Amino acid sequence: MTALIDVSGVTFGYGGAPVLKDVSYVVQQAEFTGIVGPSGSGKTSLLRLLLGTVKPGHGTVTRAPGVAVSYVPQLETVNWNFPVTVEQCVLMSRASKRLLPWATAQEKSDVGSVLERLGIADLGHRHIRELSGGQQQRMFIARALIRRPTLLLMDEPTSGVDVATRHEVLHLLDDLNRDGLAIVLTTHDLNGMAAHLPNLVALQQRVIAYGPPREVIVPDVLERTFGARMEVLQHLGMPVVVDSSDLGVMGAA
Amino acid sequence: MSFWQAVLDPFHYEFFQKGLAAAVMAGALCGLIGVYVTLRGMSYIGHGLSHAIFGGFAAAPLIGVNVALGAGVWGLASALAISAVTRRKRIGADAAIGVVTTASFALGVALVIKFGNRGPAFDAALFGSIIGVSAGDLLLLGGALVFAVAVFSVLYRAFLFATFDPEVADVSGVRVARMDALLMLVLSVSILATLSIIGVTLVAATLVIPPVVARMLTDSFSRMLWTSTGIGAVCGAVGMYASYHLEIPSGTTIVLTNALVFVLVLALTGGRTLRRTAGLDDHADIPVPVGAPV
Predict the structure, then answer these.
(1) ipTM field
(2) Which chain B residues are Cβ-neighbours of A72 within 8 angstroms?
(3) Are residues A249 and A160 in the same domain?
(4) Do residues A83 and A17 both lie within one domain?
(5) pLDDT tens-digit map of B86-127
(6) Which domain holds residue A164?
(7) Rounded to a whole number, what is the distance in Å from the CA of B158 to chain A's nearest CA?
């Protein structure tokens, strides 16, 4: 395995108390990992360190030469009234040294190919507001892919989307990962998202655990990560987290 | 007087020819840059900067400096002061703009009252005028327009990305902080160049109305740029004729023409397209870059 980004002994904060303490984590080539943790656990900060938008107070973040990173933001942070079509949105991330603003035939062909690959080829001229949740996520993934990344970073890709969209996004990411794209995402959705991923990082200022879901989604790790006792059941070979209060209700029923 | 007489007669006067050329260029310039200003929620900055520049307009002749140069430097210094105060995050951008720009405007008024007006006409700077547009004014406007078109053409994709999604643009190789500084520079130069035609008190409307109307007419960013620029230019021309025939300051008639176009489009589309403008100018904040890439 080749390391794409090596986070080593990093402590990081925004001026006050550190939000990450002595965090070490290596993003490997073609891995597919979810970073889980409650609000304030440092998920977004770790993502920003991987992106390179913030620098660590202590420790190092080393990116291997030639690694291209693309980022997909949370859908909830997007201004859906912005006057932009799907094609324009995808094309904006393609760096251009041309003096003329319009796209070349090659660029138009590239946009067509990436939209085709993501199954939204017929939506290129639509305004972004006219898309469903799944299509919106596909459009932003298309914008990320057109830069031909080796690593895709995503912030809460299933936050605020319905169950069908969540399944759609999961299958799509799984396909992309099988094609060799490394994916690291943050999520707070343990059952709907995290349990379906090959690898997880449980984060609470420090890395509490790293490994496949069966090793990370266990009561002890969850209690240290989320600060509350949670029960874990097994269903079809996958861990299912049950809130203790739910068990109480079930027991009383 | 027939329609054609009303259109052609004013051309007998050189001041009108210059005034019309200036109004069309000023309208197009404000319409173009207004797209970025409204989409980034900076229209209050445009309003504030125009008032700040008035301070420089009044002070420059008193210390023997060229008015355009003095007002330009003053405006840019105000923009940087607002930016510096905002980045410290002690007070919000809207409050910083309120303090810096209105104080600068008040200083300008005080200087003119105390020492008299030694530069271009006081009324013209406030409300715009078609009289007294010099060849130098036209040159400044033309230069500002060419500069703005060149910047937004060459950096079209980078500006679109930085406007729509600054955080992702920043990690995708777009230098958002530089884009913002460049946008402020183009805005300052544009306000300065349009000062004598539209006036400091009215320039904000010409930065806001054309893009809002254009947004109501299209969902495409590139078409919005063209439409807004065109609406600004046409409103500049119509406003200039209205100024000539009604003997009202040109800034006033240009803004009223813009407002009339807005009402007409609203009426013709039955208000259906108004919801598209919901995301425009939803925050009056100086864009602060997320951080420099490693």
Answers:
(1) 0.84
(2) 168
(3) yes
(4) no
(5) 666 666 767 777 888 888 888 888 888 887 766 566 777 777
(6) 1-68+149-253
(7) 7
